[in-house]
Structures are given as C-alpha cells and as structure tokens.
Amino acid sequence: MSDIGSIFSTWDIIVMILVACAPGFVIGAAFGAWRGFGKNPGRRLRGAIVFGLTGFALAFAGWWLYLMVIK
Questions:
Q1: Cα angle for residues 70, 57, 51 (degrees, 5° grid)
Q2: What string of DSSP letters covers 8-58?
Q3: Distance between CA atoms of 59 and 65, rounded to whole angstroms?
Q4: Interatomic CA distance for residues 21 and 60, integer angstroms
C-alpha cells in the first residue's frame, strides 16, 4: 500500500503533474504556432492552443506509462 496520500496533498500532486507535463505543452504550442494552420495570427493562436493541449496530453500519457507500466 502506498502512503503517497499522507505525504502529498491533492494540490501538491496536481502541481507535480502540471510541472512534469509543462515541457510537452510548450513544445506542442511552439510547433502549433509554427505550423499555424495558415498565416493568419488567429490561426496561429488556435494552432498553438490545440497543439499545446495535445502535447500536454501526450506528455501526461508518457509519464503515466512510465510510472505505472514500465517502472
């Protein structure tokens, strides 16, 4: 049985997840802004948001696989 609940609060765990997945968000947002779905600045912002969230989700999935399955 894990005692992670007694060491860290819920907010601590949420912050750790956000910090661990932040590089995926930044890389995804940069790629989405570069890709841009066109040259319009609004489309670049939309691309950055979509790819940023996708990068965050992929980073989260990667960390989950590493911590739950591989390790």
A1: 135
A2: S-HHHHHHHHHHHHHHHHHHHHHHHHHHTTSS-HHHHHHHHHHHHHHHHHH
A3: 10
A4: 6
State the total domains in the chain: 1
User: How confident is the model over 14-58, as pLDDT tens digits?
Assistant: 999 999 999 999 999 999 988 876 667 788 888 899 999 999 999
Q: Which domain holds residue 59?
A: 4-70
**Which pTM does this prediction carry?**
0.81
For residue 4, what is the DSSP state?
H
Q: What are phi and psi of 8, to 5 degrees?
A: -115, 145
Whether residue 61 has pLDDT greater than 90:
yes
